[in-house]
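Schema walkthrough. Field components (list of strings):
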Amino acid sequence: MRQSEIAAALRQGLPADCVLSRDEELRPYECDGLSVFRQKPMLVVLPRTEDEVRQVLITCRRLEVPVVARGAGTGLSGGSTPHASGVLLSLARLNRILEIDPVARIARLEPGVRNLKVSEAAAPHGLYYAPDPSSQIACSIGGNVAENSGGVHCLKYGLTVHNVLGVRGFTVDGDLVEIGGRAPDHPGLDLLALVIGSEGLLVVVTEVTVKLVPRPQLARVVMASFADVQSAGNAVAAIIAAGIIPAGLEMMDRKATAAVEPFVNAGYDLSAEAILLAEADGTPEEVTDQIAEIEKVLQAAGATALVVSSCEAERLRFWSGRKNAFPAAGRVSPDYYCMDGTIPRKNLGPMLKAIEDMETRYSLRCMNVFHAGDGNLHPLILFDANTPGEWDRADRFGAEILELCVRLGGTITGEHGVGIEKINSMCVQFSDAERAAFFNVKAAFDATGLLNPGKAIPTLTRCAEYGKMHVHAGALPHADLPRF
Amino acid sequence: MDAQSTLNELRERVMAAHQQRHPLRLRGAGTKDFYGENAFGDRSADAPQTPRGNAPASAATLQAPGAVPVLDLRPYRGIVDYEPSELVITARCGTPLSEIEAALAERGQFLAFEPPAFGGDPTIGGVIAAGLSGPRRMYAGAARDFVLGATLLDAHGDILRFGGQVMKNVAGFDVSRLLCGSLGILGVITEVSLKVLPRPRAEETLRLEMPARQAVEAFNRWSGQPLPLSGAAWWDGVAWIRLSGAASAVSAARERLGGEPVDPTATTQWWNALRHCTHPIFESNTLWRLSVPDTAPPLALPNQPLIDWGGALRWYTAAPSDIRSIASAAGGTAMCWRGVPPASGRFHPLQPTIATLTRRLKDRFDPHGIFNPGRMIAGL
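Field assembly_structure (string):
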């Protein structure tokens, strides 16, 4: 049997406890953070060292076994959903912080290190790692690299791609690649940008060097209430237009605040249709000035109430509701489906109106939380997987939101990745020629197609099946043909 | 001619070149003719001497027998979309940098990566294809950090759009950033969308006298503190520190760092000379550009360097034969900016696995090798 043959081959290069093959051992790995997609892997391997990772790749390459890399399994797009006849390569045991250099302001990490642990380790030096996805307590830095993760502070501090200096890892052939490094500029093509966000399709990363930045002396957040979502959206544009780049700029609609408030007691104004959180950070003088400016702009934009955090505990309390929006959705509904489209900020109003209409059409509720500063939306569609037809409706609801994102000049995914979940929506955002270019990139790194097959980039055939009458970037195919 | 017809013309030239397997030299305003492995207008080659060495290649050089035909990208120009509250500008490749900067300045915004103009007026396509950044690079980000989207005219004549006009976008591989710094070897960048930022409310420059070693140490120490740094350079015994941000933060930092404030005219002159590569050091016949970790102590090389990027960029006018191994030992790379390059080439050689990946990408995107052959790597 193929499973035992492959397990035996893997055990030759790895300690016995690194290869899991029994049904009960494999079950915990059958899904990542997107649990509606489940698939038991053929085998799970848990190497402890870089050399063991290389051994796994060489063996899998030789036996032509698909390899799906996995970090902490918190991903929301099914990027590490296992392959039925493949190896799930967990990098969770490569979890050492190899180096913190406070003078050079860098950290060298194994991929399994948790995001928050990096900032904790850097804290004694007054430094931290800026990208802070909501799952930062659990998600791994390797997973962040695979997904190009963002967070609530990326308007000012950037995404993973702006904060990673270099990676080390292996191609599917087991060849060591070192991309980027501590010097800022490198000759040749920017392969680092390609690898970051490549969802495990190009290389398996075994070491990541990240930039650490000084912790701001002070941060304060303004919480503003609005009587309607549209004016909250306009307020966001007004802040940016005033030349202010807040450290964080988030919006929650009333359905979202109503769900989180009983859960965390953040102190949200439940009478408001939308609330905005705008954070200023920097020196005490700078923060005082910026908070005053933000208050002025928000008032002019029609805020019905303003509260400024008076201490660090209060600031964290204001944020706690936003950071706990997903678990709160899980409390008010048996299941929720989180979308991740991004649109130009100016289209926030039309988008929210359209989502409201879809709620009626699909008979499902949707609560909205946004990284408003950068136009990244997280509509949370509430459903019950045990009620027949509800998941199907949620799935179509989600796909319609994403198609609208593309039509409004945005993208189907801002930070969660395509994975397996949004693979059909990729056909809407990209043309055949564009997807062919993606396959060219894939082939340059992995001609075998063994690394995370079936994810991120849909094949031409798949899109042909999905999109017979679908639109690309707002335009119907063959627009010159008459339609009925 | 309207933009669509201009684009169609470019497509036809590219498709014909692909069919006939004829190479093309992609060119904007020519401000970077000197840049790349097979540079034009290089004073070390047979090109005519130029006072600055930054001047574009002459018509005679461009049309010399055997020269690769130029695909002039200047006609495909114009700002397509600019909405200040979205912090995004989209422009066609031939748009002059000056036009973009003027449009941004009108709304109090700017390109924070401070692309070099080399004393001329480059096109935005050329700026992104070269991917070079100015003195703010370590503090605000590099050119690639501001690329949100790019449109590629590929070898088959297809128009491919990658990325977009939004800040966060992880759909598909990040090809738009791959194109930044690609020197045109993968195809023609016909349009780019760039993130822009509001101009800092206040900006001040300080001069502090100190030796190079002490300056590099100070730059790193300050970078580890919450200070509003936006530039840190050193030349001839003087460290230059630029502070940008809220007026209150800038004045608090000035109090803390001490030093001598520089008047606005001298400030502009100094940072422009670094940004645009017009500092007197760029008139040297031999010039090497070393990109190293910013913590690297002064390197064992003759002549004092010009240091930029808080220690991470160092320019040397003398080049001993072991300059590359010295740069490598410091954790960086060395590029021969001006002068006769060594046999290993102008750019620091790539590691073998990286070189293999680069070749495969080139072969996939440009199977007949029509785009800027040899510009990034000899023979590629």
